[in-house]
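> forwarded from #structure-qc
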């Protein structure tokens, strides 16, 4: 089965050592997903696989045969930007913008985890059935995505605007 990226089928690389990140950037010319540390520590390369967030620099493309990959380019729909993309603009959730695609994909994956009741290290009460998106919970869940410019407050405000009402 081919890999599906942003709704379009693509061939897997012949070389089984090619990372998903390199397939996206070098073969498919999807440059929104960034290569930061290339060690899985910064989150700049975060994409969604079947709705779950992964760091694509540590993933071999061949592992995702038959799976659905969504990059930052695949989030906007026919009616415009994804609500989180718009919130990042509205709240100045970026300065240089390098981490922004990974931050947005990670936040979308994080919201899905919260809705499914997946706890984090700081989740207090697991018996309520739903986890509130507190600042502490948000900071813990987004800790794998680094912003070195100082846009942290705008990032938190954007994510909170879009997801706090749905998850509280």
């Amino acid at each position: 089965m081919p890999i599906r990226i942003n709704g379009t089928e693509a061939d897997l690389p012949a070389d089984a050592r090619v990372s998903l990140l390199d397939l996206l950037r070098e073969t498919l010319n999807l440059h929104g997903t960034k290569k930061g540390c290339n060690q899985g520590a910064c989150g700049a390369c975060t994409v969604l696989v079947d709705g779950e967030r992964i760091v694509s620099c540590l993933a071999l493309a061949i592992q995702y045969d038959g799976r659905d990959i969504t990059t930052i380019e695949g989030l906007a729909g026919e009616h415009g930007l994804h609500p989180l993309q718009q919130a990042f603009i509205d709240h100045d959730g970026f300065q240089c913008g390098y981490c922004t695609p990974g931050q947005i994909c990670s936040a979308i994956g994080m919201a899905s985890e919260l809705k499914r009741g997946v706890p984090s290290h700081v989740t207090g009460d697991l018996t309520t059935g739903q986890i509130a998106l507190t600042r502490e919970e948000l900071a813990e869940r987004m800790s794998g995505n680094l912003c070195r410019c100082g846009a942290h407050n705008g990032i938190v405000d954007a994510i909170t605007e879009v997801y706090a009402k749905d998850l509280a």
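QC bot note: The first strand starts at residue 3 and ends at 5. The longest helix spans residues 100-115.
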